[in-house]
Every structure is written in structure tokens, then in C-alpha cells.
Design goal:
By secondary structure, the protein is mainly β. Helices cover 0% and strands 45% of the residues. The protein contains no helices and 11 strands. Strands 2, 4, 5, 6, 9, 10 and 11 form a 7-stranded mixed sheet that branches. It has a 4-stranded antiparallel sheet with strand order 1-3-8-7, with no helix packed on it. The radius of gyration is 13 Å and the shape is globular.
């Protein structure tokens, strides 16, 4: 099982980025996928998740209306579209998946300690 996160970079406030999480070794549609972020000096926090099979999604309050998580089953990739970016969105963003099929992201964001496989992270910097 591998997850490859990409798409980070430097963007001005109000700008957009799309992060990608390419999954290999498993079928992304059969697993919940979550996006997390960790800013310098802060704890890792959940951002968004997409449930397996049903494409139900959840977002943290601080990104609602700005970020959208989606899945492309043809390419086994999950995306995080980030719009109206703010300086406080600056962080390393990680994607992750639980070990078990169909586990997680059922009624809201699943805690980080229930995810077993993590991508390497991609840095997003929002600055003018």
C-alpha cells in the first residue's frame, strides 16, 4: 500500500491549488481517504475525508466552503481542491488511509490515529 501526495507549492492569498493523492497497492474506492495537515509548531489536524464506495465527504469547519475532496476511480487518485486559500492554510498536507476496507469517514472526520498508511506530505505555502 502506497500513497503519493503531490501538488503543493507557493500561492498567494485568495489563490487555489489542487492536491493529488495517488494510491497504489489497493483500490482507493474501497477505502476511506483522508487529508490532514500539520503547520510548524502545531499538531496534525484533519482537513477532509471521503468515504469508501459512497463518496460521502466531510470537511473541517475551517475549510468548509473552500476545500473539496473528490475521487477519480479511473486513476485511483483522490484530490483536494483548495480555493480561497489563506495564510493560515500554510502546512504540510498528508493523505492517509485506514488498514481496513470500508472503514472510516462514516459520520465525520476520522481521527488520525485510525489511519495506518500515510503519504509523504506535500508543502503548501500561502503568502504574498
Amino acid at each position: 500500500v502506497q500513497l503519493q501526495a503531490s501538488g503543493g507549492g507557493l500561492v498567494q492569498p485568495g489563490g487555489s491549488l489542487r492536491l493529488s493523492c495517488a494510491a497504489s497497492g489497493f483500490t482507493a474506492n474501497e477505502h476511506a481517504i483522508g487529508w490532514f495537515r500539520q503547520a510548524p509548531g502545531k499538531e496534525r489536524e484533519g482537513v477532509s475525508c471521503i468515504r469508501s464506495a459512497f463518496d460521502t465527504t466531510f470537511h473541517a469547519d475551517f475549510v468548509k466552503g473552500r476545500f473539496t475532496i473528490s475521487r477519480d476511480t479511473a486513476t485511483n487518485t483522490v484530490y483536494l481542491q483548495m480555493n480561497s486559500l489563506k495564510p493560515e492554510d500554510t502546512a504540510v498536507y498528508y493523505c492517509a488511509t485506514p488498514r481496513d476496507q470500508y472503514y472510516g469517514c462514516w459520520r465525520g472526520l476520522t481521527p488520525a490515529n485510525e489511519y495506518h498508511y500515510w503519504g509523504q506530505g506535500t508543502l503548501v505555502t500561502v503568502s504574498s
